[in-house]
Amino acid sequence: MPITPSVEDFKIITAVCEVRYQDAYLLFDHTGRICEEMRNSFSSVRVNSASPNNTIFQAEEGGFGLELGQSRFSSSKNLDKRLEKFGEYSKRFFDCVTTYLAIKVFTRIGLRVNFRMEYPDLDKAMAALTSLKLTTLPATQRCGASSEPMEIMLRWQSDQIGALLHLKAEKGSIDVILPPELELEKPEIHKSITGLLIDVDYYTVAPVEKSQWDASAWITQSMKTIKKDVDLILAG
Question: Among 3, 4, 27, 34, fewest CB within 10 Å belongs to which?
Fold first, then answer.
């Protein structure tokens, strides 16, 4: 089945926004304050792990990572096509972090988005990847392995912005064991997933002043750029 040359045909499965900065030693004083504010701003917040340099906590809206030199917000559910809600949640988190940690400059800001289109088997996913014409190498067996590539990675970078594009034909599985207190007839879920994965990491190269950056606006604009350029790549 030929791939439809549009990113709209892929499902967004994960999104991560990460900011990096010089080591913020105020983290040692304000981690509790940040967690408390997140508990008042998000649903069902719980701390998964905590140490002086690294705290990970979770809410219904997504996951949070708070570290000495970086912080991130990630989500894998209810992601809209424009990442508008994701952008709102990211702004809420990063505004809190930068306020309490007195961060003035970001050394890197990144948005990583994973898209997937499912296929009935791995051969069809690999054929879809080959059909994109991203390599001029002839289709022949390499090193005794497959004649079609399973993944391709491309990177572009200027002095301001960079992007890493990773396309991969993959076969994976989901294995879930449900709590026994649910008393379900089938307490386990096993599902195979085969498809074409598009992994895009869009990031800043030059330093960015906090006063010039709005997480929500930057994420939605970056998502627009990602979709436009990935569409051009898929269309050949």
Answer: 4
